[in-house]
Design goal:
The structure holds two protein chains of two kinds.
Chain A: H1 3-44, H2 48-62, H3 66-76, H4 86-111, H5 115-123, H6 128-143, H7 145-158, H8 172-180, H9 187-215
Helix pairs in contact in A: 1-2, 1-4, 1-7, 1-8, 1-9, 2-4, 3-4, 4-6, 4-7, 5-6, 7-9, 8-9
Chain B: H1 2-6, E1 18-27, E2 30-40, E3 45-49, H2 56-62, E4 71-76, E5 79-80, H3 85-93, E6 95-98, H4 110-120, H5 126-139, H6 155-167, E7 173-177, H7 185-200, E8 204-208, H8 212-218, E9 221-226, E10 229-234, H9 236-241, H10 246-256
Parallel strand pairs in B: 3-8, 3-9, 6-7, 7-8
Antiparallel strand pairs in B: 1-2, 1-4, 4-5, 9-10
Helix pairs in contact in B: 4-5, 4-6, 5-6, 6-7
Classes of the chains: A mainly alpha, B alpha/beta.
Chain lengths: 219, 258
């Protein structure tokens, strides 16, 4: 089967798969960013157990392959009485992974600020949470735009772990397996999905660069 | 002795604005502050001078607890400096601090840098805070830069904004930690002029600096530190013209050399 024939037969399913990939990416990324801020605040707060917990979280989820995480969530959690829908499992695995890397990006954003500004904030009487809210987090967010853009693309690609569980409708990678067990599309089947990923990644990159140029802090 | 009697701290019955009693501090094995005892009277301008590593910056920074101390006491207007929490934040709000490297908030405009403290700490309404901030920026001569961000200003302008940011809190006293050391030579005077004006206006000031002209013009007293101790103190003329210790003489020779 050639590309045009594949598209004629499965075009609707490809579009649906693209939407599924987009939806899972968007939901995962938004939750992961919120979680990354929270984890990062824990990692810089004055309470030691919270700092340790934050670091532990990052070390654990940064160092597990997404597919392993998904298998644990899908097959191990039900034994603990927690059975989630497949789609939720994929999102949870992606969120855990992406939030760990996101927190690392925020940490390096914080490290660009320099102790001097934090001392200046304290000197005018700002407390810990005010310093964080007014001085540290806004600058960390703004200087993390480019790495977070890369992470958004990584998040998009990570949702491909959804191909390993029976999603309905399947996402872009899962659809390839679905089609190739029914016809002999070969590499062409992959190619159409790949175009979906590449196109999306280009848009994310473009938007990220625009945002970065707008919010970048002059130093 | 007559000049010492003129200093604020010597006025009978008056509580000093800043008082350090038997302050000790170590950085690991390094003994950076050794039994520091110092009083700064209300309205007094104290200049702290000394070679690098003498502990002068560290001492300056202990006054608003940017550096903690191992033992001893620090009193602000007769009250012990709180160790942490809201009380410490409140105490810091009443003490201005100007740093060597300006430390303006890089992501905020000049105006926002000056209004942040009043709005967030003292609850001043934004409009009112902006009006007083503009008046302060006018006073230090950078009002026309209000809408820019710090990186668009010269070092001298940034340091004057930093002074305005401290003044916006209506501090009881101000500390200056080598405020002109990071500046190009042609910008030093514009900052010193602002500081001279402040001193003449009656602000209590602790200034870590090597600017002898500034010290001679406005300091009530000069303190010379070396190896974590106060080696010598006196009026600027006394100290610069007739230093009594060998260390002070050597140090003064070395900075007069260039």
């Amino acid at each position: 089967m050639g590309i045009s024939e594949l598209w004629a037969t499965y075009g609707g399913m490809y579009l649906q798969a693209l939407l599924t990939t987009w939806a899972m990416t968007a939901v995962s990324y938004v939750i992961a960013m919120a979680l990354a801020v929270l984890i990062t605040v824990m990692r810089v707060c004055p309470i030691r157990p919270l700092r340790v917990l934050g670091d532990f979280y990052v070390q654990v989820f940064r160092n597990i392959a997404g597919i392993c995480l998904l298998i644990i969530i899908v097959y191990a959690l039900p034994n603990l009485g927690l059975t989630l829908p497949y789609r939720t499992c994929v999102i949870v695995a992606t969120v855990l992974l992406v939030s760990a890397f996101g927190s690392e990006n925020f940490m390096s954003g914080i490290n660009t600020i320099g102790i001097g500004q934090i001392e200046a904030a304290r000197s005018i009487g700002l407390g810990f949470s005010q310093t964080l809210r007014l001085v540290v987090i806004p600058q960390a967010l703004r200087s993390a735009v480019l790495p977070m853009t890369n992470l958004a693309i990584a998040c998009l690609l990570t949702t491909a772990i959804g191909s390993q569980v029976p999603l309905s409708p399947p996402e872009l990678t899962g659809l390839v397996s679905y089609i190739n067990t029914r016809t002999t599309g070969g590499i062409a089947t992959f190619l159409i999905s790949a175009l979906g990923y590449v196109g999306t990644a280009l848009v994310i990159g473009f938007v990220g660069n625009r945002i970065d140029r707008k919010v970048r802090i002059l130093r | 002795m007559s000049s010492e009697q003129n200093t604020g701290s010597e006025v009978a019955g008056q509580v000093p604005m800043i008082e350090l009693r038997h302050v000790e501090k170590h950085f690991g094995d390094l003994h950076v502050l050794r039994d520091i005892n110092l009083k700064v009277g209300k309205g007094e301008v104290l200049v702290v001078i000394g070679p690098s590593g003498s502990g002068k910056s560290t001492m300056c920074r202990t006054i608003n607890r940017l550096e903690t101390i191992d033992s001893g006491e620090i009193l602000i207007d007769g009250k012990p400096l709180p160790e942490e929490g809201r009380e410490l934040a409140a105490a810091r709000a009443e003490l201005g601090m100007v740093f060597q490297s300006f430390n303006l908030f890089a992501h905020r405009t000049i105006l926002d840098n000056v209004t942040m403290g009043p709005i967030e700490v003292q609850g001043v309404p934004r409009k009112e805070a902006e009006e007083s901030a503009m008046a302060l920026l006018e006073r230090v001569g950078v009002a026309e830069q209000a809408a820019k961000v710090p990186a668009q200003l010269s070092g001298g302008q940034q340091q004057r904004v930093a002074i305005a940011r401290s003044l916006a809190m209506h501090p009881k006293a101000m500390m200056f930690d080598e405020p002109t050391s990071a500046l190009d030579p042609e910008m030093i005077n514009e900052v010193l002029e602002v500081m001279v004006e402040l001193a003449r206006g009656g602000m209590t000031m602790v200034v870590v600096t090597h600017e002898m002209s500034f010290a001679r013009r406005v300091a009530n007293r000069v303190v010379f530190m070396a190896d974590g101790t106060i080696m010598e103190e006196g009026s600027p003329d006394e100290f610069f013209d007739h230093p009594t210790t060998e260390r002070a003489r050597d140090f003064l020779d070395s900075i007069k050399g260039h």
